[in-house]
Amino acid sequence: MISRRNVLFGIGGAAAGGALASSLGGTTFFNYGDAPVNVLDYRELARTRLPKIVFDYLEGGAGGEWSLLHNREIFERLVFRPKRLLDISKRDISTVLFGKKYDAPIIIAPTGLNGAFWPNGDIALARAAEKTNIPFALSTASTASIEDVAQNAGGDKWFQLYVLNKTLSQQLVERAKAAGYSKLILTVDLGVDGLRERDNRNGFKLPLNYSSSLLVDGLTHPSWALDFAKHGMPKVANFTRRDASDTASQAGQMRRGLDTTFSWKDLKWLRSIWPHQLLVKGVLRPDDAVRCVAEGADGVILSNHGGRQLGDAISPLQVLAETRSKITQPILIDSGFRRGADIVKALALGANAVQLGRATLYGLAARGEIGVTEVLNMMFAEIDNTMAQIGCPSIADLSTDCIAEDGLPLGARS
After folding, report:
1. Top CATH class, 32-402
2. Residues contacting residue 274 through CB under 8 Å, at least 6 positions apart
3. What's the rounded Cα separation, in Å, for the pair 340 and 269?
4. Using an 8 Å Cβ cutoff, are 8 and 16 in contact?
5. Which of 128, 175, 193, 246 lies 20 to 30 angstroms, CA to CA, from 89?
6. Three-class DSSP category at 160
């Protein structure tokens, strides 16, 4: 049986949406010719434009995808407790993070292989972030290099590093430092690749295999196919070297560089070679957050990698309030955010900002840089509207008092 949440939150497919239209009291589902009104409309545009193998890579999770579903379901348990008879005529969704003011509490999260969704996808994301005055985080597995993004996009750029061996790590850190990146994000939940069953079934890897099914899929998605033919196979650009000139070698070099022995002592070492703010991403336990700070991290990012690593992981939203009670440093969060109201819930529970991954990638895959900018402006408007609705004209007014769980105030369960 298909649940209502699976369709409305973008987990079910187009067929599921059509099947449920009548049971939802005349709900109108997105039509390709309509103007998008929410992130899920951009998801549908992305699904329509991309071949199935590429869309499944964007959309899929690990294992049975329970974490992917759970990330969304946890938002349903949290509802607002609006305050009334307050002046909400002047609202401000801007935020200050690490001493810098941004137009909204949003960061574009580091995501890999974005050139598979749109030509020069990383640069398009960075430019959209610059336009909207929010940070952009570049992935180690980007399809535009550290230097290319720095040269082709302004704004505040952060660099994300996997747990790689010290030689590779130091090379990438030095490049990011030289190119002017202001923050370093260490991702600690990818010592080994997650078991992504959709990708395994589809045979997704770089380079894409020119199988008969991919060719047919490409022909039925002509916009993507023409872009792919014009711009060629996306590269894992930060690993382009003379001894790794083809895409398969580049991807292999990155995989071989992953260091399963990376531990707390290596975090100390990384802290010693990076002169700016350092954040640790992939934290799901408050005690780990406390130790990250003790070892020199300037903040943490609560994340289960969008459900893409461990198929049965807790939602980061579930540990947010407890983590906030343990540390005073900035807490960022990602995994499953699709609406401005989701972001407001996280802010009320103690997050300083939210990283958007798939949400902005839907915009990228649908319409490139324009689509990303539209998704961000849509999110800004949704945050502003939600804050007005609950009687909180600024982010500083948000607290756990604004939130109830399953209809009960937080902490009211026996």
Report:
1. alpha beta
2. 173, 177, 184
3. 37
4. no
5. 128
6. strand
Closest CA to 268 of 346, 340, 166: 166
Place 204 in a pLDDT band, splitting at 50, 70 and 90.
Answer: confident
Say what percent of the chain tops pLDDT 90. Answer: 75
pTM (2 decimals)? 0.89
Tokens of 160: 């994300």
Region of residue 326 (left: phi > 0; alpha: psi -120 to 50; beta: else): alpha
Q: How far apart are CA 107 and CA 172, in angstroms?
A: 21
What are the structure tokens assigned to 65, written together? 């995808």
Task: List the 78-80 sheet strands across, edge first.
Answer: 78-80, 403-405, 408-409
Q: Which helix (H) or strand (E) holds 175?
A: helix 166-178
The CA distance from 322 to 318, in Å, is: 8
Tell me if 361 sits within 8 A of 137, measured CB to CB: no
Query: Alpha-carbon Rg of the chain, whole angstroms?
Result: 21
CB 281 within 8 A of CB 187: yes
The phi-psi region of residue 330 (left if phi > 0; otherwise alpha if psi is between -120 and 50; otherwise beta) is beta
Q: Is the pLDDT of residue 10 over 50?
A: no
pLDDT above 70: residue 73:
yes
For residue 125, which of 102, 94, 169, 158 has the smallest C-alpha distance?
Answer: 158
Q: Position of tokens 């079910």?
A: 12
Q: Residue 137's beta-bridge partner residues? A: 158
Catalytic residues: 305
* Domain coordinates in residue numbering, the chain: 1-30, 32-402
Is residue 12 predicted with pLDDT exceeding 50? no
Give the closest residue to 46 by CA, choosing from 293, 368, 388. 368
Place of tokens 């985080």: 137
What average pLDDT does the segment 230-235 reach?
86
Average pLDDT, stretch 292-306? 98
In the numeric block, the tokens 């990638």 are attached to 361
Do residues 323 and 302 touch, judged by C-beta distance below 8 A? yes
